[in-house]
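Take a look at my tokenised protein here and describe the backbone shape.
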Amino acid sequence: MKHSNISVFVPHIGCPHLCSFCDQRTISGAQHLPDGDEVRAVCSQALAEVRSPENTEIAFFGGSFTAIHEDYMLELLGAAKDFVGEGKFRGIRCSTRPDCIDRRVLALLKEYGVTAIELGAQSMDEEVLRANERGHSAEDVVNACGLIREYGFELGLQMMTGLYKSSTEKDLATFRKLAELKPDTLRIYPVVILSGTKLAELYLSGEYVPYSFEEAVEICSEMLGEAEKLGIRVIKCGLHASEFVEQDMVGGFYHPAFRELCESRIYLRRIEQLAGDCSFLKIAVPARDISKAVGHGRSNILKMKEKGVELKIAPAADGSITIIERR
């Protein structure tokens, strides 16, 4: 059964740092601070509408949750806790910074029914972390992950590709270091450059030159494919669709179907391997994957044509990728 979240956005308050890429109002699409009563109202309505509450978590996103004032954090958690348990939602998810995790915080989160914690690691390269004013180290990520596991929470990690002072080699190294921490879930965000941020200043001055869109798709698709092989569930690839992002972005890698672009690229690599040196290839793929195999705007069909291969794709009867004809 597919997992889902009831998202409650807590704007950028309490966080000790303003990172180079961060405009939290834009990312969360919210400035209003929800209170306990609003959380109860959101959860009550969702509980009446969600088909599978046992596969749904209440999720506090938008800022560094454990960095907000403790009384306010506990007000929100106390309201959400009333909707967790048998016949209700399965638990509570929150996102925070690696340096805002300690034993006391984890004990409180456990007491209030939190089941999953996502850490915004962003990079495991010290130069990249410093250049983007993250305010924490790679060691902080490792230590926080160890504590989260020790207290029995589901562990989620978040990383960004294409940051200032990063490179494809550094991004892939970050992915591999995060994978070694064996997270249950992973979010991969290609950088979106938002107006009013330090990153936008660097970009507009020419100091920061981001990847091309093609490079962003290539590296993220490689990570997505590797995560699948490692059994790491990638719950997001690309920033979520938002009118605020579309209005405020000045550069970077935003596309409302970014994950599908990456999945199509993974399919293209498989197709290239199956094709070898042939000039005609007809394959069958799972019906649900037809659009990914064809590619956005028939991109995979066209790219294979550029390589001198006529590609035909049909739905598979048994849900696997098979060669129907190759010559």
